[in-house]
Amino acid sequence: MTKKHENKKKKLRPFSFDTSYTQSRELSWLQFNRRVLEEAEDQAVPLFERLKFVSIFTSNLDEFFMIRVGSLTDIAAVTKEDLPDNKCGWTAAEQLEHIFDVCGPLLKRRDKVYAHLEESLAAMGVERLHRKDLTAAEKRFVDRWYRTSAKPILSPQVVDQHHPFPHLPSGQLHILVRLHFEDRSLLGLLPIPASLPRFLRLPGDGLRYILVEDILIGKVSSLFTGFRVQSKAIIKVTRNADISPDDEAFEMDVDFRQRMKKLLKKRTRLAPVRLEYHGKLPSQVLHQLCVRLGLDLDQVYNCEAPLNMEYVYGLEGMLPPAPGLKYEPWTPQPCPMLENDAPILPQVLEHDVLLHYPYESMNPFLHLIREAASDPQTVSIKITIYRVARKSKLIGYLCDAAENGKDVTVLVELRARFDEQNNIEWAERLEESGCKVIYGIEDLKVHSKLCLITRTIDQGVQYITQIGTGNYNEKTATLYTDLSFITANPVIGEDATDFFTHMALGAAPETSAKLLVAPHIFKPAVLSLIDEEICKAQAGAPSRIVMKLNSLTDRDVIDRLADASCAGVPIDLIVRGICCLTPGLKGKTENIRIRSIVGRFLEHSRILSFGVGDEERIFIGSADLMTRNTEKRVEVACPVTDPACVDRLHEILDLCLRDNVKARIHDKHGELERPKRADGEPPVDCQFALMQHALADEES
After folding, report:
1. Where would a tag sit more exposed on the chain, N or C end, judged by fewer CB atoms within 10 A?
2. Spelled out in words, what is the top-level CATH class assigned to the domain 133-318?
3. Which residue spans of the chain are classified as CATH 3.30.1840.10?
4. Where in the chain is the domain with CATH 1.20.58.310?
5. What are phi and psi for residue 365, nearest 5 degrees?
6. How many Cα atoms within 13 Å fall on the side-chain side of residue 558?
7. pTM value?
8. How would residue 47 be classed by pLDDT, with cut points 50, 70 and 90?
9. How far is CA 77 from the centre of its chain?
10. Where in the chain is the domain with CATH 3.30.870.10?
């Protein structure tokens, strides 16, 4: 948080809540995305990977505007009495003002990083060109492609009294031109069809390419025949995408899947929240555009980098074999807790197993489902699906199980943002194969990662339960750090059975023996566990709290952690993204230390540890400590007691807390600082260390 924002915060009216040790959720997220941009600036990161971080930064910001800015814009527009946020004390309108203040300089910094990377990559044979840079032969190649592949599907439009200003879909690139005809000036628009490739690779050595929008902007004069082009720019509108099926009115006979299909169509037409442009946009044209879109000038950003950076991933398979461009390839290793050449099912019946992605492969879990699908003693498989890969082996195994006569129940969360269409399609495929598909609870998004295999044996019923921190997605399991805990504990199995029974009846469990299920059980349990550490500290007994999370925003949890700090409980928080708690404030949060880690893999695992030694209780689960997770979603956390699994969790936490390469430390001003490394102290990169450990385990 800048001093400018601190000063604004101090001038606010008094509140019923203390904002001295909390900060804005939105500015904290922007700070996290700035940290992503730092990876693009880091010379120790391979060049092309740095370009990917620029792309990640850009797509992150797109989603931030679609969801968070969209939501705040709605609140500011419709709320008569706009109540202040309980972490920063700002109203929705004030939060938007701060967001726009930060985003302009942040995008300028992105543009500068991008320009530097383009220059460095060109020196290594990866060169993005503009038309003026092309050789005569390359121009002929591009022109031929344009005539045969692009021009036939282009639809230029003039905006006048007979041709009203068209709808601009969110995220689609358009070329906007100012045209002159006789004594009139008017606008022309050329949508860039989504069916066109993002770039055209040029023939020859190395990787030389030109973006399609750069080709088309050079052709607009020929498309608007009879007009003189006075200016031209590439534009992109970002629209609000923060919609919920629970906020909409639908006919009673429309099922939930049909409701979501209607909402997906509606999303493309919601109100604009941002305009970006690249090129020349005269002030008169910009004003005209803002009026038509209903935007203020502080929602407009002039960018030097391409407006859509997704093309970067299309380059990856074309890179020349030059050193220093990419990370060394990483293959997830076998889990050392399993004999990987032997069947998985009998092994997990003998002992608990903890898989750690992407250091270890997801295959043992997939093989477990495949084995259960044909296991004569397996009678049912139940699982929650939030996000899965577009080509999912898991879905295939579940369909096989149903076709083999198993009772397969799949809870598909159709409201997984931006994966709605994918989940609708998988739900239809599962139903066609004989699986029972349910959609959870109307008012609560089901974000839990829970799978239950039920078997019948001579002694009765046998359960195998899997609880995860991440999605059942084979692709992201190679990119995100996540945990997958598999146990035959009968009590956990009974809790999981009760969970799925409640889900089928449209309600979340309110009691359980082992599993902490949100919204009714998880948060009270976390607060109670913090209270126990407070009591220990007050009694002079050893106490400690360590949490690894993606985000921390829940005001009740934040206040209880501050209470624990005041009681003398040592608290270490590893929070990758949003963190609304400010550490290190004397008399309030002085015993709290917070760090964030951004590296090659997306830190996604959630671990909660309370206590020390034999009294420690440690959990993994799907929930962050955000109000949306603790109160508005169905989440599942599970205690881990097996000594070998607990040791593995301690190793992860210890390495994260010792990381002095990719970690950043939150200071009492809300800023992120690099860890200070003592003379002679070796560098510790927790992700690199865990990769080395996984390789060593495989070799041994």
Report:
1. C
2. alpha beta
3. 133-318
4. 26-120
5. -70, -45
6. 25
7. 0.92
8. very high
9. 27
10. 344-513, 517-699
Q: What letter represents residue 378's amino acid?
A: T
CATH architecture of the domain formed by 517-699:
2-Layer Sandwich (3.30)
CA–CA separation, 688 and 674 (whole Å): 18
Sign of CA dihedral 280, 282, 283, 284: negative
Give every strand in the sheet of 126-128, ordered side by side.
126-128, 207-211, 199-201
Instruction: List pLDDT tens digits, range 116-138.
Output: 999 999 999 999 999 999 999 99
Q: Specify burial of residue 182 (Cβ count, 10 A radius: 0-12, 13-18, 19+).
A: exposed
Name the active-site residue from 278, 447, 604, 666.
447
* Ramachandran angles phi, psi of 589, nearest 5°: -135, 30
Q: Which two tokens stand for residue 391?
A: 């080509």
- Catalytic status, residue 447: yes
Q: Are strands 407-412 and 436-438 parallel, antiparallel or unpaired?
A: parallel
Q: Is 201 exposed, middle or buried (0-12, 13-18, 19+ CB in 10 A)?
A: middle
Q: Which amino acid is at 82?
A: D
- Domain 344-513: CATH class, spelled out: alpha beta
E-strand ranges in 443-515 read: 445-446, 450-457, 460-468, 480-487
SS3 content of the chain, % helix, strand, coil (to 5): 40, 20, 35
Superfamily per CATH, domain 26-120: Polyphosphate kinase N-terminal domain (1.20.58.310)
Q: Best-predicted range by mean pLDDT among 81-85, 338-342, 479-483, 693-697?
A: 479-483
Mean pLDDT in the chain?
Answer: 92
| pLDDT score of 247 | 42
Are 388 and 471 spatial neighbours (Cβ–Cβ below 8 Å)?
yes
Q: Specify the 3-state DSSP secondary structure of 142.
A: helix
Of how many residues is the chain composed? 700
> In whole angstroms, how far apart are CA 380 and each of 342, 371, 396, 655?
23, 12, 16, 39
Q: What is the pLDDT of residue 29?
A: 96
